Predict the structure.
Amino acid sequence: MTISESTYRAERARQTEILHKAIETAMQEAAKQFETPMLNAAIGALLASLAESMAAIGDSRIRKQMRQTVDKELSRQVAALIAANRPNSQTIIVDGGMH
């Protein structure tokens, strides 16, 4: 089955939004069990999940394309959130290091 580029992009955006909300909700619920949730732990969990998904791509060419897409999209998303003054995490200093 072949779909148009615009249909593909619309469906990807729809699924991305649904999954983003589900992940955000799950992480907020999980964070309730910690007195002070650590941002680096949350990022580490997301990276582990991403790595597992990427490793499941059998074709090395497609995996490489997906990694390039991830790198580009991550940079774009971070820049957009910074531009919107959205980040609101707190930096925690432990033994002189930031976490």
Q: What stands out?
A: Residues 22 and 55 are 22 Å apart (CA to CA).
